[in-house]
Amino acid sequence: MISLTIDGKKIQVEEGTTILQAARKLDIPIPTLCHHPVIEPYAACRVCMVEVSLKGRTDLVTSCNTRAVEGMDVQTKSDRALGARRMNVEMLLARAPAAEPVLDIARSLGITETRFEVKDPARKCILCGLCVRACEDIVGAKAISFIERGAERRVTTPFDEPSEACIGCTACAHFCPTGAITVEDLRGRKILHDELHLGPTTAIRIPTRQAVPMVPFIDEEACIHFKTGECRVCAQVCEREAVKHDMQDEVVELEVGSIILASGFKSFDARRIPAYGYGRYPNILTALEFERLVNASGPTGGKIKLADGSEPRAVGIVHCVGSRDENFNEYCSRVCCMYSLKFAHLIKEKTKATIYDFYIDMRCFGKGYEEFYHRLLEEGTHFIRGRVSEITDLPAMEVEEGRLIIRVEDTLLGSVRRIPVDMVILATGLEPSLDHNRLAKTLGVSCSQDMFFLERHPKLAPVATFSDGIFLAGTCQAPRDIPDTVAQAGAAAAEALALADKGTFALEPITAEIDEDLCAGCQICVGLCPFTAITYDKEKGISVVNDALCKGCGTCVAACPSGAAQQKHFRDAQIFAEIEGIFLV
Amino acid sequence: MKGEQFEPRLVGFLCTWCSYTGADLAGTARMTYAPNMRIIRVMCSGRVDPQFVLKAFHEGADGVLISGCHPGDCHYQEGNYNALRRHRLLRRVLSQMGIDPERFRLEWVSAAEGVKFQRVCNEFTEQIRKMGPLNFNGGKHERREA
After folding, report:
1. Contact present, B72 and B81 (Cβ < 8 Å)
2. Which pLDDT band holds residue B140 (cuts at 50, 70, 90)?
3. What is A2-108's CATH number?
4. B contacts of A443 (beta carbons < 8 Å)
5. What span, in angstroms and rounded, lies between the C-alpha atoms of A42 and A474?
6. B113 touches chain A (CB under 8 A)
7. Is the pTM of the predicted complex or chain greater than 0.90?
8. ipTM reported for the complex surpasses 0.90
9. DSSP β-bridge partners for residue A355
10. CATH 3.10.20.740 region(s) of chain A?
11. Quick one: which of A357, A362, A364 has its CA closest to A318?
């Protein structure tokens, strides 16, 4: 340990600690611009100047990259230190007069204007090189660097052209202390911090607030480390050393007695309806995106804002996007009406916006739902019955300038209307999740016509499937809201538990049997059985059925040339009698 | 047929998991379709012994349908493939016996395809109606007309 004095206060720090780190431990403020805890200090901005006395010598040093030495006496507010700082800040001000953090430091030092010549009053870059170092040391992309010298020095890509080396990680903008670097997605590269459109917020994150287990994971698609092999900032800052980049996905095989399928849904992709303009106009959101927007932990802290940051004056909510539509999904997605009403209520609560709700039929099916609809009617939401035909930004009159125009046939009014709004929420429907088909094939579960999983019987076995021991819960079976999902999930869990609790399993009494006297031992049945339930008894020279394995399909029976194999309840004689019988009527 | 429209007698062997459920769906959905199909439920289309088909024709059927799960969807993994093979072979046998193989049909109808079952029934009935009565075991057919 090393002991030193800062502004008269004594502190003990570990070897290798910088003066800046020691000062911060003592809560002594030293301004910095180019310093970042995860990047090696570089002392480019020189606003962290302090005066250091050691063994009778005093000197001015940059505190960010000067290591603390035993017996050091540091003055952060001495005249000499402040004077040096002022001079440096004035020079920075001359170069980057528009940089807010520089202005802040200048104000705190009592500087109102710079004595040096200002070349460009709009400049923000202080040439600290934090972006260059981030790009090189952390990201490992090496896409930007300094060019020119002296007054012409600036940060850019080679030849000022969009660089192939840039991976679009936006780390440069993230580290820039003055906001001199902004991000523009010129080539449609993926920008990671795409919060509003529900893209990954960071490459390492907790999947959802309700995730079990509640631990973060690394998104390999987005993680810089998996692109360039560098970065590992997360591992660097994690004190518990819990982050490991070399962990591999593993396939875990579990032996289970029953399976509950709760694979959920995917939201209808609103881009499939080009007339609704989703993806082309910034203020058209899907329901999930709006849900994120109004969420208190969302990007705007729950404030309803347009892309330019202003509050909408009018909002349109379009029902049945992708549902009840012969071109996409014929079924009703069931939840959209109610969540649309909730949105209308939230917008009313949080803004002064006029709300237009475009519906085909208002389906308020549940307990208390109709009452909620009536409440919305009283709140003054404008309900317009009719399917929206188009959302455009082409104005036809003055009030429509710069707004989104919803074209709709008002079927109660009997006319086509154009309604200008600022924000549109598309109530996207529910569709089977992406790997639905693969799951269905793997587990032998059938799908209904709308491609949701098919229950064994709509009334008598609503959570069971045709495969024994596999149960369904939630929106993988059909679109349903949260109360219904919870109820069904409870039922599925109970069914699975009942199966486990009993400990025995009743077999269908329809297994095949082989008549010992008739069997010639040809073994045709042995090869046909998909469950390997038939084995050949060499001693007796006949085939034998294992009742526990036989599922009773009867394929062996149909193939048996001697009629020795018979299926209980589906004997040849029984079916022959049936055939005779049906012609008697 | 004494000026009256000929009503074919059809026998359908339906697997319990897909086609029978599909037919049930057509019923619960109150779809209407030609009432000419008489249905025999088997656990799997692979259970359909060629003898059943011959027996059905013998008993007076004008057409026989085997219907099972779509390929790859068989509840018993591969029973419907066996049905497919047997269907192909049996069509040849039928033609040798003087029965138009078009009277013996194989269709895949899933549990969700009530509409398809309705269509198959209507199509098959219409097709056999055009082909006329089979009269394979002549006497029997006439006897039951009476």
Report:
1. no
2. low
3. 3.10.20.740
4. none
5. 55
6. yes
7. no
8. yes
9. A315
10. 2-108
11. A357
